[in-house]
Amino acid sequence: ENVLTQSPAIMSASLGEKVTMSCRASSSVNYMYWYQQKSDASPKLWIYYTSNLAPGVPARFSGSGSGNSYSLTISSMEGEDAATYYCQQFTSSPLTFGAGTKLELK
Amino acid sequence: QVQLQQSGPELVRPGASVKMSCKASGYTFTSYWMHWVKQRPGQGLEWIGMIDPSNSETRLNQKFKDKATLNVDKSSNTAYMQLSSLTSEDSAVYYCARGRPHYFDYWGQGTTLTVSS
In a structure prediction context, what are the per-residue pLDDT tens digits for chain A, which is 106 residues long? Predict the structure, then answer.
């Protein structure tokens, strides 16, 4: 299976700080998808087809990458962005998720 | 609006089976694959499998081939997942999610399964 490795596992950022998290795939993928999950809530689609923001996602978020390496960036950290972010691929079966990056407010 | 309403929490004995549901509304049920995802307490997300409600074609993660059975009832726009031979390792929150088809745009609220004697 295609293993997705997210880094860092945990990070903290101050308000207004730029944030970048990474997702590396063991095999090349066509697209990467990202979800945001807050405590005791269901995951929410955040970014699809690598760089498209889901409806309602603030424009300070962006996604990029290709092949084996993808990233999610927040241009300026807001308090509401504190959450766990998961990457996901389905270029090959089984569909796999990364272990998540937990983003905390410093 | 699209909604996926999942059944309530379950407390089940080890060795037993459980069947949980996911009722879809706000869209044409047979037009989108339905996926199921497992999340153990404090852990990440794990894909169980998916079902095409139009013809009940099912694709399972091989890890769950002896554990999970997926089916649908088109008359009630409901997807079901049955888990068998339950152990403590099956204690988790289980989500249904609408497939697009390679990602999930809507998620249910989750069903919490606790396996305990």
Answer: 999 999 999 999 999 999 999 999 999 999 999 999 999 899 999 999 999 999 999 999 999 999 999 999 999 999 999 999 999 999 999 999 999 999 999 9
Pick from A32, A95, A96, A101 the residue to mutate for testing the B interface (most B CBs within 10 Å). A95
Rounded to 10 degrees, what is the CA torsion of B49, B52, B55, B61? Answer: -20
Q: Which of A33, A96, A100 is facing B103, going by the closest CB pair?
A: A33
Is A88 in Cβ contact with B44 (below 8 Å)? no
pLDDT at residue B116 is higher than 90:
yes
Q: Which residues contact A12 (CB under 8 A, 6 or more apart)?
A: A103, A104, A105, A106
Q: Which amino acid is at A105?
A: L
Q: Which residue of B has its CA nearest to A84?
A: B44
| Residue A66 pLDDT | 98
CA B78 vs CA A37, A41, B5, B30, B58: distances in Å: 25, 22, 9, 10, 15
Q: Quick check: bond before A43 cis, omega within 30?
A: no
> How long, in residues, is chain B?
117
Chain B residues within 8 A of A98 when measuring between CB atoms: 44
Phi, psi (rounded to 5 degrees) for A80: -70, -10
Q: How far is CA B62 from the centre of its chain?
A: 15
